[in-house]
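Priority: medium. Attachment 1 of 2:
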C-alpha cells in the first residue's frame, strides 16, 4: 500500500514537470528541469578538431568571416538563445571575461542557432541586457552543426594559428542544474583562453554546459541519404548552371555529376562563406525581382550532400542530358550593336580610366528598354559605365561631365540592364554614347573588343514612363591607415515623389559592407538594402520586387564600411590613409540608383534631377545627416579647399553651415546642369498609345 502511494506521487510529480508545473503549483527551475541525463550526455555531438571557415552576419547586418580574424590571440564563440535564463544569467560574467581579455587581443563572438529567434528579437534582447559582443545569426544552422552545438552557454575557444578547437565546455562551474555558486572554483574557459595565448594545450571541462537545448532538425535530415540525381542536381540547374556553363562567367562548367563531385569541397566552402551564389544582400531586408540566392533549405541540402560524400544516386544525370553553352546575347539579338573602341591592356602596370565614345548611327530617336555588354576580356575589364552625349567630342573622349542619360553599365556578374515594363530612356538621333572603361592588367597583354547591345521599344510603341538614374556618391572619404571598420555616410535629397527601382553599391578593395536607407520627411527611417559583406569581385544591380514609393522631402542615405587593416586579404597596403580615387587600390563610395518621378511622363519631362544636384554636395559632407556641415565634416581634398572659407560662409556664426548658407556658397561656385532634360523627343502629332500601364518588372 505504501509502495503504491509512493508510485502514485512519483507519477503526479513527473506529469507536473512534463506540463511545466511543480506539484506545489510553482513554475519549475529552468536549471533543474533542463538537467541532462547520462543518455543525453552520451548523445552529445562532438566538437570538430578544427573549425572550417564561415561567414555570418550579426544583428547589425555586419558580416564576420572567421578566417579573417588572424590578428586575434584567441577566438571565443559563445552559444546563446533568446529567453534562455542560463544565457541571461551568464551575461555579466561574459562581459567581465571580455573586459579582461578583449584588450589583450582575444576576439569574442556569440552564436545564435535558434530557428525561432528572429533578428529583430535578438537585437532587442541584446540591447536589453547591454551586450556589446556581436551576435552572429546562424540562420542555416551549418556553423552550429559543424561545432556540434547542443545547448546555449557553450564556450568554444579557438586557436587562430591552427583553427583548432582548443576547448569546448561551460565558462566555469559556477552554474549547475539547480545550484549556483557566488564564485567559480574552476574557471575552465578563462584557463583555456590563457593556454591558447601561451601556445599551450587547454584543460578539458569535466561537465557539459548548463544551457538550454537547441533544436537542430537538420541533423536528423542530414542522416537521410541525399541524392545528387533527385535532390541536388535540380537545385544546381535552377540556381547555378546559368553561370556555370561552357563559356559562362563561372570558373567551371557544371556539365555532369563527375564535374560537380570533383568541385564539391569547394562548393561547400563557398556556400559556408557566402561567396556563392554571388548575391550579397541580406535576404531579411527587402524583396528582389531577380533574386539569385539559394534558400536555406537548398543550402543545407547541398552542404549535407557533400558532407555525406556526394553520392550520385540512381537515374539519369540531369546535368549531363544536354550540352549547355553560354549565349553571346542572352536577351536575344539587339536592335543596335555598338563596338566599344579596341583597347590593348598591357600585361602589368597601371591603366588610367579610358573614356572612349561610340558614335550613334540612329537617324531617328528610340526608347531604350534593355542593354547588354559582351565583354571579350573578362579578366581585364572591371567595369563600363555609359552616358549619352549630344555631340561627338572633337577630342574623342566622352568625359562624364558631358553625359546625359545612362545606356546601362557592366560589372562582373551584371552584364545586362532591363528597364521595367512601360518605362524607357530616350536615345535621340545622332551624337554619341560615352563610356568610362576601367581596365586592370592581369599578367598578359590582351586587346579588348567589347560590344554594347541596345534593345528598343518597337516603332510606334512609346513607353509612358521615364527611367532616371543618379548616384549617392562621396569623394570626400578619408579612410585611416590600419582601421578595420571605418564608416562613411552620404545622401541625396529627394525633391519630388519618386518610385525607386534599384540600387547598385560599388566600392573597391577595402569595401567591407554597405547599406541603403530612406529617411522620410517625418524623420522615420527604413533600411532598404543591407550588404553585410561587400565582394569587389561580384557587383550587380539589386532590383526591388516592387518599386518603392519615396515621398518628396525624403533622403536616400548610403553607409559604407571599409577594412583598411592587415586582416583584409585584398588590401594593397594597410599602412596608407586612403582617399577617393579611380584605381582599385584607391577607394570609392558610389551607390547608383534607378528611379522615375511620379509627376513625369514621356510626353511631359521634368527637371527634377537638377533639384537633386543642387543639394548633392551637402549630402557628401553632412556625415551625421543633421542638415548642417560642421568644420570637422569638411574632409578630403574638397573639404580642405572649402574649410578656409568656413568663417565667410557661416554668416550667422553658429559654427555650422546650414542649407541656406550652403546654397549661397554653391551659387558662387556655379555648377553644371544635367543634359537629360534636353534629350526630350519632339512631341508626336498624334500621341502613340502607351504600353500597358504599370511600373514593375
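Attachment 2 of 2:
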Amino acid at each position: 500500500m505504501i509502495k503504491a502511494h509512493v508510485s502514485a506521487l512519483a507519477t503526479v510529480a513527473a506529469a507536473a514537470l512534463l506540463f511545466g508545473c511543480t506539484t506545489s503549483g510553482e513554475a519549475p527551475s529552468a536549471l533543474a528541469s533542463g538537467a541532462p541525463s547520462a543518455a543525453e550526455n552520451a548523445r552529445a555531438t562532438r566538437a570538430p578538431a578544427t573549425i572550417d571557415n564561415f561567414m555570418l552576419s550579426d544583428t547589425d547586418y555586419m558580416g564576420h568571416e572567421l578566417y579573417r580574424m588572424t590578428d586575434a590571440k584567441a577566438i571565443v564563440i559563445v552559444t546563446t538563445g533568446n529567453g534562455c535564463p542560463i544565457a541571461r544569467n551568464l551575461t555579466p560574467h561574459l562581459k567581465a571575461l571580455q573586459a579582461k581579455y578583449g584588450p589583450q587581443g582575444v576576439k569574442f563572438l556569440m552564436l545564435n542557432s535558434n530557428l525561432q529567434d528572429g533578428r529583430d528579437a535578438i537585437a532587442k534582447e541584446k540591447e536589453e541586457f547591454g551586450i556589446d559582443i556581436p551576435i552572429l545569426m546562424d540562420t542555416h544552422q551549418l556553423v552550429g552543426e559543424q561545432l556540434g552545438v547542443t545547448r546555449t552557454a557553450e564556450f568554444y575557444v579557438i586557436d587562430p594559428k591552427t583553427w583548432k578547437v582548443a576547448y569546448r565546455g561551460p565558462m566555469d562551474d559556477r552554474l549547475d542544474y539547480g545550484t549556483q555558486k557566488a564564485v567559480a572554483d574552476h574557471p575552465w574557459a578563462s584557463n583555456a583562453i590563457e593556454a591558447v595565448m601561451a601556445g599551450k594545450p587547454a584543460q578539458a571541462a569535466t561537465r557539459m554546459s548548463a544551457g538550454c537545448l537547441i533544436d537542430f532538425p537538420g541533423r536528423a535530415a542530414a542522416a537521410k541519404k541525399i541524392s545528387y540525381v533527385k535532390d541536388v542536381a535540380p537545385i544546381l540547374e535552377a540556381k547555378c548552371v546559368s553561370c556555370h556553363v561552357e563559356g559562362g562567367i563561372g570558373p567551371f562548367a557544371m556539365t555532369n555529376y563527375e564535374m560537380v563531385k570533383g568541385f564539391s569541397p569547394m562548393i561547400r566552402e563557398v556556400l559556408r562563406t557566402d561567396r556563392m551564389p554571388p548575391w550579397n544582400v541580406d535576404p531579411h531586408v527587402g524583396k528582389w525581382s531577380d533574386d539569385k540566392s539559394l534558400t536555406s533549405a537548398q543550402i543545407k541540402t547541398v552542404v549535407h550532400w557533400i558532407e555525406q560524400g556526394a553520392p550520385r544516386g540512381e537515374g539519369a544525370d540531369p546535368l549531363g542530358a544536354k550540352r549547355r553553352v553560354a549565349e553571346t546575347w542572352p536577351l536575344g539579338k539587339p536592335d543596335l550593336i555598338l563596338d566599344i573602341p579596341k583597347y590593348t591592356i598591357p600585361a602589368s602596370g597601371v591603366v588610367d580610366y579610358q573614356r572612349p565614345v561610340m558614335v550613334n548611327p540612329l537617324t531617328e530617336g528610340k526608347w531604350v528598354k534593355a542593354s547588354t555588354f559582351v565583354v571579350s576580356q573578362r579578366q581585364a575589364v572591371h567595369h563600363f559605365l555609359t552616358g549619352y552625349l549630344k555631340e561627338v567630342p572633337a577630342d574623342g573622349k566622352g568625359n562624364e561631365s558631358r553625359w546625359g542619360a545612362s545606356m546601362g553599365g557592366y560589372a562582373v556578374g551584371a552584364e545586362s540592364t532591363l528597364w521595367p515594363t512601360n518605362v524607357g530612356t530616350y536615345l535621340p538621333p545622332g551624337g554619341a554614347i560615352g563610356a568610362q572603361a576601367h581596365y586592370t592588367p592581369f599578367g598578359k597583354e590582351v586587346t579588348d573588343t567589347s560590344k554594347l547591345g541596345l534593345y528598343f521599344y518597337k516603332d510606334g510603341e512609346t513607353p509612358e514612363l521615364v527611367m532616371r538614374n543618379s548616384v549617392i556618391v562621396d569623394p570626400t572619404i578619408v579612410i585611416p591607415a590600419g582601421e578595420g571598420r571605418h564608416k562613411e555616410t552620404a545622401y541625396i535629397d529627394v525633391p519630388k515623389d519618386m518610385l525607386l527601382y534599384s540600387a547598385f553599391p560599388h566600392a573597391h578593395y577595402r569595401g567591407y559592407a554597405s547599406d541603403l536607407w530612406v529617411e522620410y520627411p517625418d524623420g522615420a527611417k527604413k533600411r532598404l538594402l543591407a550588404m553585410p559583406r561587400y565582394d569587389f569581385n561580384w557587383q550587380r544591380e539589386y532590383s526591388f520586387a516592387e518599386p518603392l514609393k519615396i515621398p518628396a522631402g525624403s533622403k536616400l542615405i548610403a553607409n559604407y564600411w571599409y577594412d583598411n587593416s592587415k586582416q583584409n586579404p585584398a588590401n594593397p597596403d594597410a599602412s596608407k590613409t586612403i582617399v577617393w580615387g579611380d584605381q582599385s587600390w584607391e577607394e570609392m563610395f558610389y551607390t547608383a540608383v534607378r528611379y522615375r518621378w511620379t509627376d513625369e511622363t514621356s510626353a511631359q519631362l521634368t527637371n527634377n534631377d537638377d533639384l537633386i544636384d543642387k543639394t548633392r554636395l551637402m549630402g557628401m559632407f553632412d556625415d551625421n545627416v543633421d542638415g548642417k556641415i560642421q568644420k570637422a565634416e569638411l574632409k578630403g581634398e574638397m573639404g580642405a579647399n572649402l574649410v578656409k572659407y568656413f568663417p565667410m560662409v557661416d554668416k550667422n556664426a553658429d559654427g555650422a553651415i546650414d542649407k541656406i548658407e550652403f546654397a549661397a556658397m554653391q551659387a558662387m561656385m556655379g555648377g553644371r546642369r544635367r543634359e537629360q532634360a534636353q534629350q526630350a523627343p519632339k512631341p508626336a502629332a498624334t500621341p502613340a498609345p502607351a504600353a500597358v500601364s504599370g511600373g514593375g518588372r
